[in-house]
User: Fold this.
Amino acid sequence: MVSDPEGAIDRPDAAEQDLLEPARGLEEAVLDALDAENNERVRTLLAPLHDADLADLLQRLSPEERGTLIPVIRPDLHPEVLAELDDAVLDDIVDLLGIENIAAAVTELDSDDAVDLIEELDADEQRVVLDAMPAEDRTLVEEALAYPEDSAGRLMQRELVKVPPFWTVGETIDYLRHIADMDEDLLPDVFYDIFVVDPKHHPVGTLPLSRLLKSKRPVRVEGIMETAMTLIPATTDQEEVAFLFRQRDLVSAPVVDADGRLVGAITIDDVVDVIEEEHEEDMMLMGGIREDDLYSAAIDTTRSRFSWLLINLGTAVLASIVIGLFDATIEQMVALAILMPIVASMGGNAGTQTMTVAVRALATKELAPVNAMRLIGKELLVGGFNGILFAGITGAVAWLWFGNLAIGLVIGLAMIVNMVVAGLAGTTIPLALERARIDPAVASSVFLTTVTDVVGFFAFLGLAAWLLL
Amino acid sequence: MVSDPEGAIDRPDAAEQDLLEPARGLEEAVLDALDAENNERVRTLLAPLHDADLADLLQRLSPEERGTLIPVIRPDLHPEVLAELDDAVLDDIVDLLGIENIAAAVTELDSDDAVDLIEELDADEQRVVLDAMPAEDRTLVEEALAYPEDSAGRLMQRELVKVPPFWTVGETIDYLRHIADMDEDLLPDVFYDIFVVDPKHHPVGTLPLSRLLKSKRPVRVEGIMETAMTLIPATTDQEEVAFLFRQRDLVSAPVVDADGRLVGAITIDDVVDVIEEEHEEDMMLMGGIREDDLYSAAIDTTRSRFSWLLINLGTAVLASIVIGLFDATIEQMVALAILMPIVASMGGNAGTQTMTVAVRALATKELAPVNAMRLIGKELLVGGFNGILFAGITGAVAWLWFGNLAIGLVIGLAMIVNMVVAGLAGTTIPLALERARIDPAVASSVFLTTVTDVVGFFAFLGLAAWLLL
Assistant:
């Protein structure tokens, strides 16, 4: 919004009150105002909020609370707020707002945000929204939706500024002012680079606005444009796009179709969202969840988590079978049953440490065939060192606890074996999955704990059966 | 680099060969050329690489390989490459290059990158570099270093463009061209916003370059500037800065000192690095590592991982003590020893799923006091549902395995108890840590597994002792 500077200072900007929790205390106030049916106060409270902060607030409320709030703020609800919402909450709000209002909102968004929002709707809702859109906007969105999900084509913005290389700085600036005059909507709300294209619309360079502004009017664009570009094919997966933006410190990049023609531009703000998504995905997968289910109903959450737990039950039963092999041994020396979880659990944790580093390094491409062997070798060493250290500690504990030196030696030996195996499994399992084109974050931990449990119980109980009886 | 478009097309741009792995196969070629002492070929191979890609390549090489490569490429090694390196590898390269060369390199960087680099050096190296720098650059860097580590003050760039609100678009553009003429270095290499300040240098608005370019020369800056700014105090922690940039889709933001004066600007490219750092930190902490030790020597890695494993040993011993309480029971029925790890392990996994969602939601501020109770309630339900499901499955397995219905009932009951407890612990532990101002990612998992192990073994063995004997 554009207004006079004074406006800004008086204006209660959440960021000035508390940078980190713009909405602290606000929820309570809003809910109170809602109970008091003081709609005016509700609007005044929410007016200063940034769209994203309002979206967050809506997400933190319960469905019932949202049900009462939405009708109150509907008139002045920015479409951008919808673009910021989590799927589960968006569905909820779409029902509250009515699909027509959504359609109206979507047309106000830049093409990339519009696509973002429409992606989240189910098929029939999408139809309604698309049909309600003005023809040209619809074409832009439908073209974007034609690209695979999570591809650069979905991410890119169709509105962009392109100029021929032979134009001068002056011509370029006049052109921008001219379009802005004719129809603002032909330009992106905000942009950082101008794209230089040849007559076939192939990008030949990019021109950062700051460089344009540093140059005199008569200077030719081709003389000052950046020619070392990163061209992104529209079908590129968004994860690759994010990697490139990080790696090259890009702020915007040209997207090209199969024939190398410029079809759109991806800007950093969308990429930051992708980085967040990928981050969240990694965390969830390593935590044993398919996707963040914070806003899903209990029953859906139960269903989606069940499968992972079932796999884990399988590995746990496997470990029990291994223990079962030694029931006679345990019967003769119950101390073994008491101590056996220690070896397995230490192996699991050491393995997880190693696996975390490996999975991360694979994701950042820091781990490649050329240095894989070196990492494995190092982790074997680390496993060996820590194995010896904890063999000493645990052995001493067991010895003192049961007044039996032999049992201390057995648990010590088992500890060394399992820690070395953990180092080996923690590196080789992610590497193997990566080679098999499976996301290492998904399955690594279940394979790892299977290995460290089985080896842990087998080594300890096996050595015991062999040396103690 | 600025050159003619043709240059770009012929130029072997790694990104065009393979977006995701610019360096694939290249390492081998480089190493071969090094063995053949064909330095010319080494340089030709590395010339087209982006600075960040070269940095990655250096990191993937072994210390010995780096030792031979660096002297070969030293002459044409961009300072930006150093700014991209991991600490451990940087130390290594600083020794190879000699501190004087580092000093020379630093002066070529923008102030924020220079600070980035100098931060990584140890105290005496810092002195050498700072003394070797031209007075004014040194002041900029020293002022930045005066701010706390990981603060906005460290992150910000000192070079920025500020104009008074009463200037016109025309005056602003002429001013930029003028400075660019006089001394490029007074302007940042690239910038996206112009900052509008009052006579006391307090920011009153920001002006996105695209908006400047859309407006006619006579238009006044104050008429088109963005007054809804996010002012970032220089002492703000970088994690908060990253949160704000994400939340508000910022590309650059003004940094102010204690008196509200504009002292610098933070740009998105630095924030993306912060987001990555924070992401890595979360992953590592949840994996039980203090920091990414991919490039650390085996012995340092062993040391840094030891403490976490020691804590884990404590919790494992605790679990064993619980088992020890029931040694008589186990002696009478060894089947219990065989089955007992299942209950504990299922609880641990269910708890980890819940904890992952909670830790993530706390990090993104999606979980706040207002909705904490709702989440806890939901997770108790989920724990109950899955508990019942797995009680059935596991009970049946145990019953068939040992032909003993009672043991099936006992493990089923224990399973329900532990899954519900896991749901409770998985939410309340992170919430409690957050309230205690401890990063939930650090300690959550160790507390969680302690709870699920202790409760798992106690519930199963306790119920067995009570119902079976």
